[in-house]
Amino acid sequence: MNMLRSQRARTVLTLGLLSGAFILFIGAVGMIAAFHEREVVDGVFSLGQLLLVLAPFATAYIASDRLRESEAEAQVMIIGGVAVGLLTALPTVILLLFNSAEYRFLLDLTLKLVPFVVATIYAVRLHRIGSDQRLIIGSWLAIVVLVGIVTFSFALIFEIKGDLRTVLPNISRDWVDVVTFDHRNELMTGIFTLLLVSAGAGAAGSIMVLAPPIPRKALLYGLGVTLIVGAFGETVRLILQENVDRDTLKLIFRRDTLRQNPALLLFIVSTISGFLWAKFGQQAHLGFSNLEPSRRRAVNGVGMLVFAGIMLMLPWLIGRTLSDVAVTIGIFVLMGLGLNIAIGLAGLLDLGYVTNYAVGAYILAVLTSIGPLGRLDGVFTFWMVIPVALLAAMCAGFVFAVPVLRMRGDYLAIATLGFGEIIGKLAISDWLKPLIGGAQGVQAIPKPIFLGIELKNPEELYYIVLVASLVTLFVSIRLNNSRTGRQWMAIREDEDVATAMGIDTSRAKLLAFTLSAATGGVAGAIFAAKVGTVFPNSFTVFISINVLSLIIVGGIASNPGIVVGAVVLIGLPELLREFSDFRFLMYGALLVIMMIKRPQGFVPSKLVSHEIRTGVKAKVAAAD
Q1: Which of 305, 333, 356 corresponds to the end of one domain?
Q2: Paired sense of beta strands 449-450 and 45-46, if any
Q3: What is the C-alpha end-to-end distance of the chain, expressed in Å?
Q4: Within 13 Å, how many C-alpha atoms sit on residue 400's CB side?
């Protein structure tokens, strides 16, 4: 029993301190203060304050779920949730006290006491397990010295600097305002408010675990919908303004912030909808599964027609600004579908995919530009150059694939990364400046013209991207189910075995690189037509990293996953441009979380899901 209690306490302590470290970190890098500029619900809370609440809520939910697995009582789970909330707020409270001139003496005192406290705790543990007295005394002295060196160094730094903000510049007055809920001038009141809110959020997370499954799902759905609509209020308003009159919009939004009464109504409606789906959704799914095949196909056909209609009407439903974002997403979907051939099917880690993107863009720019660098004075149109860009990208993919055919894994990744850097340096070099403009790029690229209509607006360019993505998706599906696709998958699983089975791996890998490059060229050409200018700084290695990231997040070898990954990693940052300073931080955090919690991606392919579920690869590795 004592061991069980110790394990439960360790779970609460570990998760609570991790949550507190997370809140402290995002505050120290400036995220909390920056996110505070966007309100979620008018006059209630901001996005920065939402982070302060969500962290203890989610952590307490996870901790309580683990406590329930150990058959803990409800009272213990709620107390654990409150403890998680308090532990989450504790590092921030300590930093607030350290940052205050009135309580500055606590900094010096705490840093000097830490070595003795840590050493004493460790000595007590040694005593409990029956260690020798000399070992206990020696360990105590060693820990005091080692930890003391670190803490006294920090104390010296703070004493010399004299102000915590010189060490942590983002711990500013704005940060204090957020974490104290606008009680900066009454610090103790602000600290008490922070502790109360954090403990309440932790208790709410525990109660949510204790709630019956259907109400829990309904409440989580209602909260999720309300918070997402509030956080993306500007985007929702842009969508609604295309179909709703201005007076109605004013009732729902104050500028770009969701008003309180509409937020409450949205929460009630979405919670009821979530309740109905949680209660009857599974029955509806079973009813659909029990339908006759002909009727099931008919229902699927109707669903596909509705989805196709939405996709066709999408740019006119969401407006010009969001249509521009949709075009950007579509361009990355194109590149993702292409790179998925090399990575998802053939297992070839290509980090130089931006090369194909750049080749397509510059081919279209040079052949269609009506500016000084236009070689043919606009003789070629967009539609005539698209096949040329596609073939040029395929040739580039073939040429760059030949030297790396014998490479595998990390060596292949490094080599292709080098090719990506080479193409960037060539684009900006004086050697190719007479052809592609060097750092000044190629300008005056005309827009596509279709049936005498200039496709200059995002709403019109959207259809080019949509058609290109659908064609690429069709080809990708056919390749996946073809003999060539099975050869690629065999190479991905084990190249040596594939060679022993008679597969020409060099030919298959050349084909994978070449076909993969094709859609990159088309995407680059569409990008050049969209922006009207092409500059070398548009083709950095981060393009390749973004495309690779969306494949990993969405699901390797999964076509729907690529779309989801593009929306998450490309669309959301475009909608949150004021937080662009934290884009790569959020990228890294999301990738780490995905690798730990869901390595197969948001929408994994059936094969990858089967491998992870059954542990096929693990068994093969163990046999090796």
Answers
A1: 305
A2: unpaired
A3: 42
A4: 32
C-alpha angle 302/305/309, rounded to 5°?
140
Segments forming the whole domain that contains residue 262:
231-305
Nearest CA among 180, 212, 177, 216 for reference residue 195: 180
Q: What is the pLDDT of residue 596?
A: 79
Using left for φ > 0, alpha for ψ between -120 and 50, and beta otherwise, residue 438 falls in: left
Whether the CB-CB separation of 111 and 154 falls below 8 Å is answered with yes
User: String of b and e for 22-41 (b: at least 16 CB within 10 Å)?
Assistant: bbbebbbebbbbbbbebbbb
- CATH (domain of 502): 1.10.3470
Residues 436 and 380 in one domain: yes
One domain for residues 248 and 138: no
Query: What does the pLDDT look like over 291-315, one tens digit per residue?
Result: 888 888 888 889 889 988 999 998 9
The pair phi, psi for residue 176, each rounded to 5°, is: -60, -40
Do both 340 and 414 map to the same domain? yes
Number of domains in the chain: 3
Query: Any residues with CB less than 8 A from the CB of 386 and at least 6 apart, and which?
Result: 364, 522, 525
Question: Do residues 262 and 338 both lie within one domain?
Answer: no
Query: What pLDDT score was predicted for residue 617?
Result: 47
Residue 529 backbone dihedrals phi, psi, to 5 degrees? -70, -35
pLDDT for the residue 621: 36
Q: With contact defined as beta carbons under 8 Å apart, do 50 and 61 qualify?
A: no
* Residue 328 sits in the same domain as residue 181: no
Phi first, then psi: what are they for 450, rounded to 5°? -130, 120
Residue 620: the pLDDT is 36
Is there a contact between 194 and 51 (Cβ–Cβ < 8 Å)?
no
566-604: per-residue pLDDT in tens?
998 888 887 777 677 787 788 788 888 887 778 788 888
> Residue 85 contacts by C-beta under 8 Å, 6 or more apart in sequence?
16, 56, 60, 198, 199, 200, 201, 202, 203
Pick out the chain residues at pLDDT < 50. 616-624
Q: Are residues 461 and 570 in the same domain?
A: yes
122 assigned to some structural domain: yes
Task: Specify whether 276 is located in the same domain as 334.
Answer: no
Burial group, residue 241, by CB count within 10 angstroms (0-12, 13-18, 19+): middle
158 and 254 share a domain? no
- Looking at residue 375, what is its pLDDT? 66
Residue 221 within a domain: no
Is residue 188 included in any domain, yes or no? yes
Q: Answer whether residue 82 is part of any domain.
A: yes
* Cα–Cα nearest to 53, from 183, 214, 256, 223: 223
Q: Given phi > 0 = left and psi -120 to 50 = alpha, else beta, which region is 162?
A: left
| 289, 305, 321 - which closes a domain | 305
pLDDT of residue 624: 33
- In eight-state DSSP terms, residue 586 is H
Q: What's the angle, vertex CA 249, arms to CA 245 and CA 254, rounded to 5?
A: 155
Which residues are CB-neighbours of 246 under 8 A, at least 6 positions away? none
Judge contact between 513 and 350, C-beta under 8 A: yes
Rg (CA), the chain: 29
Please list the residues that pair with 258 across neighbouring strands: 41, 253
> How much is the pTM?
0.83
**Nearest by Cα to 66 from 215, 203, 206:** 206
